[in-house]
Amino acid sequence: MLTTSLTEPIRAEHQALLPHIEELGASATWIPTAPALVVHEKLIHALAFLQNELVPHAKAEEETLYPAVEGCMQAPGATDTMSRGHVEVLRLVDELATIRDNLGDPPTEADRDRIAAILHGLHAIVALHFAKEEEIYLPILDRCLTAESAAELFERMHHVAHLHKEAAVV
Ligand SMILES: [Fe+2]
Ligand SMILES: [Fe+2]
After folding, report:
1. pLDDT tens sequence across 139-166
2. What are the residues whose beta carbons fall under 8 Å from the beta carbon of 73, sequence distance 6 or more?
3. Which of 53, 95, 116, 160 is a plausible cystine mate for 31, CB 3.0–4.6 Å?
4. Residues with CB under 5 A from ligand 1 (ion)
């Protein structure tokens, strides 16, 4: 049976992002032994996704989705633990960008190990973070929003994400 919910747009957005999250985990496995050129390529590819897609998604949630959840719960600070997850993702993405900027050719073993550790970390953190949003927070919105307020929320979220994508520097 086909079921739809008011928060379907963000669930669909997660579905579109998830294969790329899985790819981070796969790349992490390859990085320690891959040829130097492949290490560079996978790092650039991962950062393009993280900076152009995932970070704008997280920032748009901060500015639109999380305030809506807290409004529904009438509990200021209820999404703070989720925001802390975003902070950790941003910190790891920044560290990855710094490694890319200073990466030698060939990359050192220490660089390979750190890149792999960061990608493994991002894979695990983001997969769990998505599950928390979908299983804990989105049902709260499904119970609280009207069709009209949900449409307005996701249009705003889409717009804010677009602004952050335009501002992303890779
Ligand atoms: Fe999030
Ligand atoms: Fe999300």
Report:
1. 999 999 999 999 999 999 999 999 999 9
2. 140
3. 116
4. 61
Backbone angles phi, psi at 75, to 5 degrees: -140, 90
The Å distance, Cα 104 to ligand 2 centre, comes to 34
Site of tokens 């009209």 = 148
Which residues neighbour ligand 2 (ion) by CB within 5 Å? 133
Kindly give the distance from the C-alpha atom of residue 110 to the centroid of ligand 1, in angstroms, as a whole number. Answer: 30
Which residue reads 């950062």 in tokens? 47
Taking the C-alpha atoms of residue 122 and residue 118, their distance in angstroms, rounded to an integer, is 6
Residues near 52 by beta carbon (within 8 Å), at least 6 away in sequence: 165, 168, 170
The length of the chain in residues reads 170
